[in-house]
Q: What sequence folds into this?
């Protein structure tokens, strides 16, 4: 069975390691915070100027001056700090942030990512995504494997305007976990009950498949 | 002490004319100079080029200036959540320059710091890099970006004193800090305007030298764009 958005977030949460500073993008990536192990120390950075983000506030305790990059009201945890946007991207560019998790419209086998524009149709802008993908050492993409028309978003080459080149390291979709290697997408895990054949049929890019592909474990 | 206090938003915005380039602080609706935006709508200044991370929502923030067609060009990083903006952009009525958020912040900071240009890896290999100088540093490709040149910067702070010293609250610091002093004239609107001597110099985020005019905003709605909460256990 294909994963839902929370399952994708849950699987990505396994990639968050002790002492990591993590930047979460809007959408599925934001959900990752809910599933990170509680026995490790992790700090979440939001590029609008906060480190040490906590959960959403209790009803009635929202503060218009304390939001994340998705413009959602948030809280801060002990040890948190606020800073301005230039400083925030300074810590991103200088690679103080260990892991960036973001969404995408397309990912290509060379690690290119497109997520900010559909020419003539939709232009929301790149926000902080271009800065993040250009500088982060470890980038994981959370996305759906196919679009609403059933077409693969895991491609040999991106068709949409790029956000960054050769930067994505891993992709987690409702069907699979894939690593981007110098030779292309390597299939690491499949969603419970999803066959390798189904993943191949849903993927435009070539997949490197070595041996038995295990089901992902999401406990 | 050099006194920067002005008594009204009208006085603060004197000299802003048609065709000027204005920086406006804020991220989404967080920390936007709402009183100054309302006054710009009143003034009816047009053909403005606005440098602001976002473009407000349909009925608040810079969305109010867009509704009245007062903006000729927007320089932003993210413009979703604004139907009127998208309509004007796709129809070609509005000129839009989309810039990576960190680059946008640094183009402000560079202007504030007197640095004409800098290199950043953001946007390399994308359409953002088109026409820009590319250089390799430490084995990585970078593109050259220029400091902004703006006539006015309008920022919003939590507290300020009559000397123009500013303190921000929470994530409302965002672009307000790097825009302060990044234009020929910087206007600060604050929630609390206190006499000099009442702010601890250790706690000042932006020193008054960056601010030419400061006033107390009459009313702050501080609208929340995405009100997210959790249930009490």
A:
């Amino acid at each position: 069975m294909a994963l839902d958005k929370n399952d994708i977030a849950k699987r990505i949460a396994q990639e968050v390691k002790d002492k990591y500073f993590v930047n979460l993008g809007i959408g599925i990536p934001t959900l990752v915070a809910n599933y990170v192990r509680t026995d490790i120390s992790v700090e979440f950075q939001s590029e609008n100027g906060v480190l040490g983000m906590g959960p959403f506030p209790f009803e009635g305790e929202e503060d218009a001056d304390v939001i994340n990059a998705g413009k959602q009201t948030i809280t801060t945890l002990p040890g948190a700090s606020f800073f301005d946007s230039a400083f925030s991207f300074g810590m991103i560019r200088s690679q103080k942030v260990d892991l960036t998790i973001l969404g995408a419209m397309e990912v290509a086998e060379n690690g290119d990512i497109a997520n900010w524009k559909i020419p003539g149709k939709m232009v929301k802008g790149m926000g902080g995504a271009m800065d993040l993908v250009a500088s982060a050492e470890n980038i994981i993409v959370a996305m759906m494997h196919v679009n609403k028309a059933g077409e693969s978003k895991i491609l040999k080459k991106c068709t949409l305007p790029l956000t960054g080149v050769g930067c994505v390291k891993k992709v987690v979709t409702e069907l699979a976990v894939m690593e981007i290697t110098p030779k292309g997408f390597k299939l690491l895990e499949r969603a419970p009950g999803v066959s390798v054949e189904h993943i191949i049929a849903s993927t435009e890019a070539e997949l490197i498949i070595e041996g038995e592909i295990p089901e992902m474990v999401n406990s | 002490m050099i006194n920067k206090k002005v008594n009204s938003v009208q006085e603060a915005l004197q000299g802003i004319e048609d065709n000027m380039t204005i920086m406006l602080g804020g991220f989404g609706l967080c920390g936007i100079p709402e009183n100054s935006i309302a006054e710009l709508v009143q003034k009816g200044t047009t053909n403005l080029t606005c440098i602001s991370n976002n473009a407000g929502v349909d009925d608040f923030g810079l969305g109010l200036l867009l509704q009245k067609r007062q903006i000729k060009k927007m320089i932003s990083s993210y413009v979703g959540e604004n139907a009127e903006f998208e309509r004007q952009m796709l129809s070609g009525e509005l000129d839009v320059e989309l810039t990576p958020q960190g680059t946008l912040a640094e183009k402000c900071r560079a202007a504030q710091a007197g640095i004409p240009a800098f290199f950043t890896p953001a946007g390399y290999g994308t359409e953002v890099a088109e026409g820009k100088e590319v250089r390799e540093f430490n084995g990585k490709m970078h593109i050259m970006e220029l400091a902004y040149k703006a006539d006015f910067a309008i920022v919003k702070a939590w507290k300020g004193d009559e000397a123009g010293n500013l303190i921000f609250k929470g994530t409302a610091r965002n672009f307000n800090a790097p825009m302060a002093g990044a234009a020929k004239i910087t206007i600060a609107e604050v929630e609390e305007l206190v006499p000099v001597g009442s702010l601890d110099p250790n706690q000042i985020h932006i020193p008054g030298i960056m601010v030419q005019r400061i006033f107390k905003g009459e009313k702050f709605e501080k609208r929340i764009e995405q009100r997210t909460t959790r249930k009490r256990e």
User: Anything to note?
Assistant: The mean pLDDT of chain A is 95. The helical segments of chain A are 5-13, 28-32, 85-93, 129-135, 196-201. Chain A touches chain B through 56 residues (CB under 8 Å).
